[in-house]
Amino acid sequence: MAVAPKRILKVGKSRISIGAMTTDVALAGMKADTTYVPIGGIRNIGNSGMSYQAINVEEIDDGIVRKGKGVGNPGSLPLTMSRRPTDAGQLKLIEASRSDDAFNIRIEEPAGGGKWQVTYATALVMGRENGRGGPNDTRTLISTLEFTEEAIEDPTLADTLAA
């Protein structure tokens, strides 16, 4: 039996775009959004994904902690960007941070072989911090995308990045 080569899935060349304000959490609705704008200058994309709360019940009579799985949290996506005051994606992100509404998010990551894995989510934009640092640093924009539902990976790989 032939062994398939192990492919390294790199982060370089990944792109995150912000779309329209939304209440539609279906994949079809997020894909149909025509207002996505790539966010420029991204230096670091944090971890994201579903996590669950632990339920612990401590019973005195037998001294054992009983455990259960509680509610899920769709997670958040911290972003650090080189500050670009005229970048359309950063400007849209800053504007979205002033809203109480969720926005469509599209994440495009290299899948190898010229294909792209595309993930869609709805998120609240939580903040727009200006990072500064020391004399050998550059200014940054820091924001966190708080997912309102679990992110959805498009089951088909894209041949190219979306326009």
UniProtKB/TrEMBL annotation:
Q: Which domain of life is it from?
A: Bacteria
Q: State the protein's name.
A: Uncharacterized protein
* Native organism: Antarcticirhabdus aurantiaca
